[in-house]
Amino acid sequence: MQLAFTERNVLVTGGASGIGLACARAFRAEGAKVVVLDRAPGPDDIDTVRTDVTDESSMAEAVATAVARLGGLDVVVGCAGISGPVGTPLVDTSAADLAAVLAVNVTGQLLLAKHTYPHLATGGAIVFLASDSAFVATPGMAPYCASKGAVVALTRALAVELDRVRVNCVAPSVVDTPMARADLGDSAIDNAGFPVQTADEVARQVLFLAGPHARPINGQALLSDFGYSARSAFPA
Ligand SMILES: NC(=O)c1ccc[n+]([C@@H]2O[C@H](COP(=O)([O-])OP(=O)(O)OC[C@H]3O[C@@H](n4cnc5c(N)ncnc54)[C@H](O)[C@@H]3O)[C@@H](O)[C@H]2O)c1
């Protein structure tokens, strides 16, 4: 399958690590020019503009810098995210915890779309990282679940509001990244009794949604969870 990203200009937030880094490298391997926005420094091979996705003036400047370096913009991928409290009961979850998670995972995606859309070429694409936590939950992660549900709703809202471009999101279950290892511990990932995706697998889902083969797909969440959410409670 020809993904047709040769000479396409791609901007990825959160591209210094994990899924964002895998996306940056996957687009580049398909011939795209890629610039990453991240608050952390990226690896030496990644062209990174440092910014905080929650800070609107910093984002506006960083997007302008990235677009100038690229010479245009065809694809935007929003991977920057944080998990916030994990395993924390709601009664111990502070408003500050909630605000911090919503700021990165929701406001960050909204600011990304706001500041990149004016530069995006006709036929372009925005792909956000949501999570299966938008649809299913484990106890102790209420802010994260709420934030990812909002990303799915934001995806639909922008798909109907923005012309010229498609807006979709990927909603994976657990992915082997620094975030998941920090949250769950190395042994939970290395000896997982549940299926775990690689960041490269998620990147391929992102590339599909961003590319011409997904032309009719707009406003959708691609739930990649090995079928876990499909299971009925019916005892058969
Ligand atoms: N790892 C998983 O199991 C999993 C599952 C489903 C969805 N996701 C989502 O995928 C996305 C990427 O997660 P990951 O697992 O690769 O995590 P990661 O921690 O490896 O990478 C996240 C990147 O986002 C950057 N970032 C965080 N806050 C930022 C901010 N305010 N401004 C700029 N950059 C910021 C970090 O510096 C980091 O480079 C996130 O949105 C996450 O919620 C992850």
Task: Tell me what the structure shows.
The chain has 236 residues and is of the alpha/beta class. The chain has one domain (9-225): 3-Layer(aba) Sandwich (Rossmann fold). It is built from 7 helices and 9 strands; from the N terminus they run E-H-E-E-H-E-H-E-H-E-E-H-H-E-H-E. The chain has helices at 18-29, 56-70, 95-116, 142-161, 178-184, 186-190, 199-210; strands spanning 9-13, 33-38, 48-50, 73-78, 120-129, 165-172, 175-176, 197-198, 221-224. The strands form 2 sheets. It has a 7-stranded parallel beta sheet with strand order 3-2-1-4-5-6-9, sandwiched between helices. Strand 4 (73-78), helix 3 (95-116) and strand 5 form a beta-alpha-beta unit. Helix 1 (18-29) packs across helix 7 (199-210), helix 2 packs parallel to helix 3 and helix 3 (95-116) runs parallel beside helix 4. It starts with 8 loop residues before the first strand and ends in a 12-residue tail after the last strand. The model has no long low-confidence stretch (mean pLDDT 97). It binds nicotinamide-adenine-dinucleotide.
